[in-house]
Specification:
This protein has 223 residues and is of the alpha/beta class. The chain is built from nine helices and six strands, in the order H-E-H-E-H-H-H-E-E-H-H-E-H-E-H.
Length: 223
């Protein structure tokens, strides 16, 4: 059972319990990093550390005024950090290179001695000025789907897989109240449409989309 969050943040305990259980039904090629470890890739008590990382991040966010909704946990980002659009190196890297709100008690969870760093996560946090307060980063499919190359790869989650697990996103959105939601990429936009919701779309920062993502976010929020 997920521990209750700090009282200054929303109580997302029920959402986290569902998240930690993992995807419903058959989900081949999907890792639930909040419960699963892969020998050679994950360090000691890695799932517990990732759950703690996510809960610590949510406390830093507090009550969101804005949600940036991505696709799925990426190999170099949330797969090991436990946090959408966020890498191990951003959490526990050298001072001055990690995020301002990170450091202790956040922990690395992989066996990668260099720590993973996700380019998309770097773009997103740079656009946000490194500030976690009031901005929630989340994913439409909040686990890690990998490709045919194995656990150290990414794939776009199938529409059927996303649809079968929209209850997590729906429960989260029900707790957010008046927060503005932005869809980062087409998968997020399609998922929100399945829930009958429209949201402004931002170009995903991957595959050459970084500059457009920054501009669209800046124009939308007057950053």
């Amino acid at each position: 059972m997920a521990p209750a969050l700090d009282s200054s943040a929303m109580d997302l305990s029920a959402v986290l319990r569902r998240l930690y259980r993992g995807p419903r039904g058959s989900a081949p090629g999907v890792v639930n990093p909040y419960r699963e470890s892969i020998p050679g890739l994950d360090g000691p008590v890695a799932p517990r550390r990732r759950r703690a990382n996510l809960e610590g991040y949510l406390e830093r966010v507090g009550r969101p005024r804005l949600v940036l909704l991505g696709e799925a946990l990426g190999l170099r980002g949330g797969r090991f950090s436990g946090i959408a659009f966020t890498s191990e190196r951003q959490l526990v890297g050298p001072e001055g290179r990690r995020l301002p709100w990170a450091g202790s008690p956040f922990q690395a969870t992989s066996r990668n001695p260099d720590l993973w760093l996700e380019p998309s996560g770097s773009v997103v946090w740079d656009a946000l000025g490194g500030d976690a307060r009031g901005v929630l980063l989340w994913n439409t499919f909040p686990w890690h789907p990998h490709g045919v190359k194995g656990p150290l790869s990414n794939r776009t989650p199938e529409r059927s897989l996303v649809a079968a697990n929209l209850d997590v996103l729906e429960a989260l959105l029900a707790e957010l109240g008046e927060a503005r939601v932005f869809a980062v990429g087409r998968t997020a936009q399609s998922a929100l449409a399945l829930l009958g919701l429209e949201a402004p779309a931002l170009r995903h920062p991957a595959h050459g989309g970084a500059a457009l993502f920054r501009r669209q976010l800046r124009e939308s929020l007057s950053f």
